[in-house]
Amino acid sequence: MAAADAPVKMAWGYGGSAMQMEGGWNQGGKGPSVFDVAYMDPAAHPTHGTPFRAADHYNRVKEDLGYLGQLGATAYRFSVSWPRILPNCTGTPNPEGIKFYSDMIDEIRRQGAEPFLTMYHWDLPQSCQDQFNGWQSNQIIDAFANYANVLFDSFGDRVDYWLTLNEPRANCDFCMKQPQFAPFTSTSEAVFYQCMHNSFLAHGTVVKNARARKDSATWKISLPSITDWHDPDPGATATSYYASTLLQVEWYFDPCFRGDYGPNIKKLFPLPTFTAAEQAMMKDSCDFIAVNMYNSNTNGMPALPPGENAPFTAQEVDDATARTYWPHPRPEGVRALPKYLYDRFNKDVVIAELGYHVPRSQETTYAQSIQDDLRVEYWRLNAPNLISLIKEDKVPVIAMLAWSLIDNYEFNSYEFRWGHIAVDYFDPVTGKVNTDKGSLKRTIKSSAFYMRDFFGNNTVSPFGTKQVKSSSTTTSAATSASTGVAVSTAAQASTTKSSGASNLVAHLVETLSAMMAGILFL
Ligand code: NOJ
């Protein structure tokens, strides 16, 4: 093999989060999360479904993790549900919850994947909300640090990569300020800034505690934030927050690397201030850059291109980014944003989320959701840029976690599917999406086979194959006896370029109607 064709050193795999996958909301000693309580009355969220059953991953975990090995994934990101571990926010840990994740970590390793553990992906215990108003209060900092210590004690012997808080901005902005999310406690901008601030301080405190421990030598900790790429970055102006990569980076990333919000974002918004001691604690509190990437924009916003109904070509993907729908699947961003972050912070990069949801118009049946030609096309355009990012731009990307492993719950909806493994949420009688009635059968999609082949050929894991270390809490896999893996031969055969059945206008219409229906993306 010529040197130029040699595989790059990068782990790759999939991600997911507890509330979006697990279901089992009151099984195994779990306490309610803020979402469980807010969505307890389905009438309050009539069209979108609840997280109570989700993909029932809690009861099918063995089957789901089996796909990692089958698809050749070398990394897997999952989140721990805080209320499954500490139903009362703090206090005595729930042994069944600890065992569930302990078994999960062992199984991930057995499948040949490196675990990336997210401590918090928005499913706050309702008990924290009741006791001190959750993220609005600085009491959350000690509560979160206490929870993190339970995780370190329980899983630190087998986990090296930790992600503290997923996307503080979405947790604070979407979940607190928008009525269709939970816990929806405030619409105030000041409360939103304080919530973000408390999140950063909670992260910094956890890292400070971790570094003081004797068992932390191999641990690497970071905080994943979502950021849009804008090309070229216009810098900071009063009107350009959502159109400026720099401003987003100054707000979401600078505290964990530089110890403070950047100067331009501070001029724009009245953010809370870090004391000198807090700045010292925050500086370099991220061991690596963790970025969730979905949007890549040009700044020109040209008019809609001609050929709306043409096949889903590279040019269309590029043009599509100029429009307003989400995500903007423009391949340049996959290369540009990690390079921008690496140039600024000079740390290893983990792409903690990257992916594409196929529009509803393309997936009105379970069979259609398996033959996900648009997602195959997305990866066909984007995946080679990840390789160029490492080979040509010399950015040390150590892992890429595609979002998501299985179709899951998008916080208030099952309508948009991000998975590389289909989950049958369709009511067999009506044919409509209904999580309570669907069989939840899994089937590998075309895109997962594409990924298996592309990344299998072009990457080698920097983590090697680690032995499963034995754990005091582990016995056998926690729950399901199901090991059957459904594979669609039609899907397997279709890892080549799609036929071009896509229609970008349909995508735009779908997205606009979803926005009107109150379904937002995070
Ligand atoms: C980012 C969030 O972390 C994840 O939970 C969500 O499903 C994806 N964006 C897609 O919206």
Topology diagram in text:
Layout: E1 8-9, E2 11-15, H1 18-21, H2 34-38, H3 57-70, E3 75-79, H4 82-85, H5 95-110, E4 114-120, H6 126-132, H7 139-155, E5 161-165, H8 168-177, H9 189-211, E6 220-222, E7 225-226, E8 229-231, H10 245-252, H11 254-258, H12 263-268, H13 276-282, E9 289-293, E10 296-298, H14 314-320, H15 331-345, E11 349-354, H16 366-370, H17 373-391, E12 397-403, E13 421-423, E14 442-444, H18 446-458, E15 459-460, H19 489-493, H20 504-516
Parallel strand pairs: 1-15, 2-3, 2-12, 3-4, 4-5, 5-6, 7-9, 8-10, 9-11, 11-12
Antiparallel strand pairs: 13-14
The chain binds 1-deoxynojirimycin.
Quick one: biggest sheet? Answer: 9 strands, parallel
The averaged pLDDT comes out at 83
Highest CATH level, the class: Alpha Beta
Name of the CATH superfamily: Glycosidases
Q: What do we call the CATH topology?
A: TIM Barrel
The number of E-state strands comes to: 15
Sequence of strands across the biggest β-sheet: 6-5-4-3-2-12-11-9-7
Which spans have pLDDT < 50 for at least 5 consecutive residues?
300-325, 472-521
C-alpha Rg (nearest Å):
21 Å
Ligands (ions, cofactors included):
1-deoxynojirimycin
From the spread of the alpha carbons, the general shape counts as globular
CATH architecture label name:
Alpha-Beta Barrel
Organism: Chytriomyces confervae
InterPro entries: GH, Glyco_hydro_1
GO molecular function: beta-glucosidase activity
Protein name: Beta-glucosidase
